[in-house]
Amino acid sequence: MSGRLEGRVAVITGGASGIGLECARRFVAEGARAVLADRNPEMLIAAQTELGNAVVTEVIDVTSEADVERMVARAVSEFGTLDTAVNAAGFGGFGMIADHPVDEWRAVIETDLVGVMLSVKHEARVMREAGRGAIVNIASINARVPAEGMSAYCCAKAGVEMLTRCAAMELGPFGVRVAGIGPGFIDTPLTAFTQVVPAIRDAYVASTPLGRAGQPDDVADAVLFLVSDDGRWVSGDTLFVDGASMNKAYPELHKVAAP
Ligand SMILES: NC(=O)c1ccc[n+]([C@@H]2O[C@H](COP(=O)([O-])OP(=O)(O)OC[C@H]3O[C@@H](n4cnc5c(N)ncnc54)[C@H](O)[C@@H]3O)[C@@H](O)[C@H]2O)c1
Over the chain, what is the mean pLDDT? Predict the structure, then answer.
């Protein structure tokens, strides 16, 4: 199928890698043009080379409101509008609460939650004015599933799910939909460390009833559904794309990884 996003203009944070980059590939294949925004300039250049004139890039840090404003302004100046957004920039971290330096904890919250809020804020301003738009925030199964050693990430992602619900209420009257995706374990650079600690990867797969690691295109297809007209009556919900792993216990990573 093609053309489901013909003429649409997107911004994708975290667009240089993993899930964000795979969304960019799918969107471009479906006829969209996009601003790929990321803090990694080298990977942005690689994405630009791969996707060509359908995309432009912006080096941004989503924790900077000025950077996020610049990303949205670029979509309008380059392509004339903004009607689609994927907020995928994020990272994890590991630390038991009793031992976790608060600066590290805050850094996860700043990118994974405040960064999404800033993105929705500035994307919404353009979409509200236009009276249409669709925003997808990338949360995680950890929005609902707690994990030992991952309190910052879990709290940030739980916040993203609630932010999605609030934003959907505020923006619905303007014709703007806001939905979330909650991936389970997905093979991306974020989880590449599990290649060198196979026990962790095995534990994730064992906790996934469909019996394999998720791939970026498993997520991108669900994002495409939500931002396209197929998802026209979906707003406020977070769709968990996880091979049913939420129904099983989360791997005890601190035990699996112990020497
Ligand atoms: N891979 C998984 O198993 C998994 C599972 C659930 C949720 N997620 C979420 O999916 C999203 C994408 O993750 P991924 O797996 O594709 O990882 P990834 O590392 O491949 O991509 C994330 C991108 O975000 C960028 N980024 C990080 N912090 C940023 C910041 N402050 N400003 C701008 N860019 C920033 C990174 O440079 C990177 O290119 C994240 O929000 C992550 O939490 C991933």
Answer: 97
Nearest CA to ligand 1 atom 17: 190
Task: Kindly list the protein residues whose Cβ atom lies closer than 6 A to any atom of ligand 1.
Answer: 13-14, 16-20, 38-40, 43, 60-63, 88-91, 111, 115, 138, 140, 183, 185-186, 188-191
* pTM tops 0.90, yes or no: yes
What CATH number does the domain located at 9-186+214-247 have?
3.40.50.720
- Name the residue ranges covered by the structural domains of the chain: 9-186+214-247
Nearest Cα to 177, choosing from 119, 219, 239, 124?
124
**78-137 confidence digits (pLDDT tens):** 999 999 999 999 999 999 999 999 999 999 999 999 999 999 999 999 999 999 999 999
Cβ atoms 204, 193 nearer than 8 A: no
